[in-house]
Design a protein that fits this description.
Largest sheet of chain A: 5 strands, antiparallel
Radius of gyration of chain B: 12 Å
Distance between the termini of chain A: 7 Å
Distance between the termini of chain B: 39 Å
Number of helices of chain A: 1
Number of helices of chain B: 1
Largest sheet of chain B: 5 strands, mixed
Order of helices and strands of chain A: EEEEEEEEEEEHEEEEEEEEEEEEEEEEEE
Strand content of chain B: 25-35%
Largest interface: A-B, 22 and 19 residues
Number of strands of chain A: 29
Structural class of chain A: mainly beta
Shape of chain A: globular
Structural class of chain B: alpha+beta
Number of strands of chain B: 5
Oligomer: heterodimer
């Protein structure tokens, strides 16, 4: 793909408290057209575009009345199909799915595989494009499970990271348990929280019990992963065997969303917040922080952002990038604003406002 | 025996926009199973995996709340009306 030339379309998928909105633009990303709401009134925690077929969108839908499910659209929101067998625990488990937090299409060589992360603390897999779902037994039967404690949002499995260079390797992030890694396509799982701090726990460096908020992978160096944790931003360069804190240079250690630059290694974005008990932008300043060197140094990006004090924050899926060159970056707020940068974070402008609280922003780049 | 089922507006997107259905069933539970065969996934919006009525969903049989009676094992007679009603949420 030559993302600098030719016709391209960017779709920005917004999962909100009241349904789905989709913003569309061409590759210049100057004018935006909004469609929706789709799935009106349904809280949508996350959406994912499936690059394998170039048309399917998955949505993690959590109705207050009718419970959680995964829905699929093959025409950018016009019509939706509900899972015939949504993610559900076996009756014998005594567990009930509370919410679906994340949906993740599988790797390129498994075109019908989709993953879903749910609360309480479980991974589901579909092998038929999201129509039916099966619980991952290995994670559910993990020996540490009886001691898992939920974060403020529940025991949510919110991050699912697949390694395209090693198809059997995958990672999940669970609040407030930590990062788990599988080397056998999810049959067995290892706890991977070495050197990650849990300031709120009696033992600051437990084996598990860390509160990971978001986990992402460096697409050019898959052994490099980054996590925004309750207690800092961390990097691993050995496939999560050990972690190094990279919060120095950020205004706080707390925050939720992260977005990776799709083309440049070691480059990603975060949005720090004041802290656990005051979840607004750090220093009340609406800002995205960018690193180009895996967190060794950080740049504050505020050009074009509002100058007023910002008593607002962003949910864990509130940052995203598109696939174009230059890369577009999207930052959503809990108050229904969407900011966009068409120059990789250097400058920003507001492209949507007065929406319901935005739970997630993700992109579909069509070339 | 044939019973009538009233589908609330919020669930009609999953029943091809049909509000009134008719199924053969002798209990509420069987009614929901039959509905799920007609519209796969519909049952999961009404019951959780522990087979319990979702907290904010009510079912009335001929105007009586099944929670006050036998729950989803409530027996049905020919011509009974099963009405699925989302609870009023909010203050």
């Amino acid at each position: 793909m030559d993302s600098k030339k030719g016709k391209a379309e960017v779709n920005v998928l917004l999962g909100t408290r009241k349904g789905v909105f989709i913003l569309q633009s061409d590759r210049r990303r100057r004018a935006w057209k909004m469609k929706g709401p789709f799935l009106q009134s349904s809280p949508v925690f996350h959406m994912a575009f499936d690059p394998r077929d170039g048309k399917t969108i998955y949505a993690a839908v959590n109705s207050g009345h009718f419970g959680p499910t995964v829905q699929r659209s093959r025409n950018f929101g016009k019509t939706w199909e509900n899972a015939e067998k949504p993610p559900r625990f076996p009756e014998s488990s005594g567990l009930n799915v509370e919410n679906v937090w994340h949906v993740e299409p599988g790797l390129a060589d498994e075109p019908d595989t989709v993953y879903a992360g749910v609360a309480p603390g479980a991974l589901f897999r579909s092998e038929d494009g999201g129509s039916s779902w099966e619980m991952n037994q290995g994670l559910n039967n993990h020996p540490s499970r009886a001691e898992w404690q939920p974060g403020a949002g529940g025991l949510c499995l919110h991050s699912i990271v697949l390694d395209p260079s090693r198809p059997k390797r995958m990672y999940v992030g669970i609040s407030a348990v930590g990062v788990f890694k599988s080397e056998d396509a999810g049959e067995t799982w290892g706890v991977k929280n070495k050197n990650v701090r849990a300031d709120f726990a009696p033992d600051k460096y437990p084996e598990f019990g860390q509160c990971v908020h978001k986990l992402v992978m460096d697409p050019k160096k898959p052994d490099n992963l980054y996590q925004q944790n309750h207690c800092g931003v961390y990097r691993t360069s050995d496939a999560a065997e050990s972690w190094v804190e990279i919060s120095k240079g950020l205004p706080s250690t707390f925050g939720f969303p992260m977005a990776i630059h799709p083309h440049d290694s070691e480059r990603f974005y975060v949005m720090p917040e004041e802290g656990d008990f005051f979840r607004v932008m750090a220093n009340k300043e609406f800002a995205v922080y960018e690193t180009e060197n895996a967190g060794r140094t950080w740049m504050k990006r505020t050009k074009g952002m509002p100058k007023e004090k910002a008593y607002v924050g962003s949910y864990r899926e509130g940052l995203a990038t598109d696939q174009l060159d230059p890369v577009g970056v999207y930052a959503a707020t809990r108050m229904g604003h969407l900011f966009h940068s068409a120059d990789e974070g250097k400058s920003w402008r507001l492209i949507a406002q007065w929406l319901p609280p935005i739970y997630s922003v993700s992109t579909a780049t069509i070339t | 025996m044939s019973v009538k089922v009233k589908i609330p507006a919020a669930l009609r997107q999953y029943t091809q926009n049909q509000s009134d259905l008719q199924v053969d069933a002798s209990t509420v539970e069987e009614t929901l199973q039959k509905l799920d065969r007609l519209f796969p996934g519909l049952r999961s919006f009404i019951l959780n995996e522990s087979n319990e009525l979702r907290r904010y969903v009510n079912i009335f049989v001929n105007g009586k709340d099944i929670r006050a009676g036998e729950g989803i094992t409530t027996k049905l007679k020919e011509g009974d009306q099963v009405r699925i009603v989302p609870a009023v949420a909010g203050g």
